[in-house]
Amino acid sequence: MYQHSTSDYDIVVVGAGHAGCEAALAAARMGQRVLLLTLNLDNVALLPCNPSLGGPAKANLIREIDALGGEMAKVADATLMQMRRLNTRKGPAVQALRAQIDRKLYQRRMKYILETTPNLFLKEGTVSDLLIHNNRVYGVKIGNTKVTAKVVILATGTYLRSEIFIGEESFSSGPQGQLPAIELGYALEKWLPLVRFKTGTPARVNLRSVDYDKMIIQPANEFFQGFSFETKGLEIEQVPCWLTYTNEKTHQIVRENLHRAALYTGAVKGVGPRYCPSIESKVVEFPDRDRHQVFIEPEGWDTNEGYLSGLSSSLPADVQLELIRTVPGLENAEIMRVGYAIDYDCLDPTLLNSYLQVKEYEGLFTAGQINGTSGYEEAAAQGLIAGINAALYLQDKDMITIDRSQAYIGVLIDDLVLKGTKEPYRLMTSHAEYRLYLRIDNADQRLTPLGYKLGLISEERYREFERKWEAIEKEIDRLENFKLGSTPETNAILTELGTAPIKHGFSLAEILRRPEIKYQDLGRFEALPELDPIVIEQVEIAIKYRGYLEKQEAAITRFRKLEHRRIPELDYAQIPGLSREAQEKLTRFKPLTLGQASRISGVSPADISVLLVYLEGKKADG
Q1: Among 133, 139, 227, 426, which residue is least crowded by beta carbons within 10 Å?
Q2: Number of domains within the chain
Q3: Mean pLDDT value of segment 11-32
């Protein structure tokens, strides 16, 4: 555990992107004295790529951040331009919210929150090295100045020795022309092995040069809630996005110019994201596709800049303009910012434990894209957990882990620290074994009690949370106990609603369990109480999916028996019966629980059985 000493700060957070903001806010709100350092105060909480938040799995992360007491959801709700609910024709497990954000408003609001949070000091400064002695971090260097701290959280994003590529041209730069962290990148090599990843962004165009008549409008949805559970309505006039498609002419231009694309000349050394490919990659890897989607997304209320989602590119500027103008609606498009690819340094996340602490160095935590992830939401989620655990570490309290059955945050961190990643990691719903339970609508039920225990959820909000779930349980109980008789009137209504008559009398819950029946349809049988739409949504999900949820809960119970069995410090080489590979992998990864050990590649079920027997023997020996 941490040994107390006098320092300039309790915690220094390096980088004020989405990971750094959440880490600094969480730690400061938990009573720590936090310094948040950024290369440029004008770029706090920058959204350097798409001006949007959410989507499948990512919206779950935002909701979970909010449920724990983080900030991203509230700032998004306050600065959004459009909100859509995705996958509404599918079940609740894969439904998601996605919002278009005014990127400048988002930055200004987050910066103001940081500036006005007690215990938090936001400053501009370029970190050149870590201060480490006897495998314990004790601060950072800013130029030649030493700033001491008991904990350091690295949240450097894509700035470590970052290099931008536009066709044959390349230069040292962070996203959108910002300063890169060159000196820190070289310094970190003294302490940790680094790998090289790549990402990219499309061109931005002047929306006055776009012909919307040739595109398909993507309107906002009517909605009764935002990302945050505290948002009680959003009264804005939402703006639409627009959809168009590439065509064979677009693809031909790409093919003819691949020799000028940085991704295909060998100039870019980093590995790129599989699920957000450039237009060059899509044309090369999917030659049978005759078109690809292009979404035109506004970047803010007070700008005509538009983001061309789907046209990320490392081609030269002249080729980018040529191919963009082959797309319907973009024939006269004027580029305001050219697209580019960017290379940067990051860590192998298997160097971390589940607390997001570097195993080799006491007091050093990392969060965000330095851990090999892609996306604002993945970064913010890691930042929140790193900030929480840094504060708990300093308070000599047990640090927290979120397991895979509790939240998408747990899936994200578990995947990173146990499996690692050979490309920028993107969280997807398919990664979650228990996604029917890990829905966007119940993140507060799963995580708000923990946020309250940590001091990140206010007393008022927690009482509101309790009232909401009490109302849900009360209505479920009422519907279960409200019996309908098999009368001609009842069966006439059921027939009219498109469902079979009943023979022996059903409860309202049993009627609602039928797929074609909605909660509001129950008003045909009796007067319904006045309930919040959020309560109604939860009641309907709980009743319709009860059987599936019970099966998932049973699976979660089995999972947690292993997941909660802690592993003490062990010399795995001395455990008889373990395979040599298991000994090597367990020594390297240092799993905290049997559940984590079981998910390490190379550790077989037989190895887990041996380990379980060994732990039982140690327990019996006292």
Answers
A1: 133
A2: 3
A3: 98
